[in-house]
Specification:
about 45% strand; about 10% helix; Jelly Rolls; 3-stranded antiparallel β-sheet; 1 helix; 4-stranded antiparallel β-sheet; mainly beta; single chain; 11 strands
C-alpha cells in the first residue's frame, strides 16, 4: 500500500455497515490495518502534536470530552464520530473532560510505533 491516498480510499470502501433486529454493526477491514488500538486519555492530558511518515490513521471517538487537532482543524467529536488523518498531517488528541476518554485508532498502512515525528510534547519527549 505505497499510494497512501489510495490506501485510505480502499480502507474506507472496505468498511461495512449491517443492520440487525437489535441494531447495527460497522466492520472495519482489519487485514488492511497496520495496527489497532484503543487509546485512553486521562482528564486534562494530551498526546503530543505529531505526524507519521508511513501511515495514515482512522479514529473513532468512543467517549465524549475529546478534542482532536487534524492539521489546522479543531474537532470535538461525539461518540462514534469517525476521523481520518492522512500521512504527514499534524494531529493531536486531548481530553477536555473530567473522566478518562477513549478513542479507537486504526493504522492505515504498514508502520510501527517508532513512526512518530513529535512536533510538540507536554512531557518533554522528542
Amino acid at each position: 500500500m505505497s499510494d497512501k491516498p489510495d490506501a485510505e480510499r480502499l480502507f474506507r470502501e472496505g468498511i461495512v455497515e449491517e443492520h440487525r433486529p437489535w441494531g447495527k454493526f460497522r466492520a472495519f477491514p482489519h487485514r488492511m490495518a497496520g495496527g489497532i488500538k484503543i487509546i485512553t486519555v486521562n482528564p486534562g492530558a494530551a498526546l503530543s502534536l505529531q505526524l507519521h511518515q508511513r501511515r495514515g490513521e482512522y479514529w473513532v471517538a468512543l467517549d465524549s470530552g475529546l478534542e482532536v487537532t487534524v492539521g489546522d482543524r479543531l474537532l470535538k467529536p461525539a461518540p462514534n464520530e469517525e476521523i481520518t488523518i492522512p500521512p504527514h498531517t499534524a494531529h493531536r488528541l486531548r481530553n477536555e473532560g473530567s473522566v478518562p476518554a477513549r478513542l479507537l485508532e486504526i493504522w492505515i498502512g504498514e508502520s510501527e510505533e517508532g513512526d512518530i515525528v513529535r512536533l510538540e510534547d507536554l512531557y518533554g519527549r522528542t
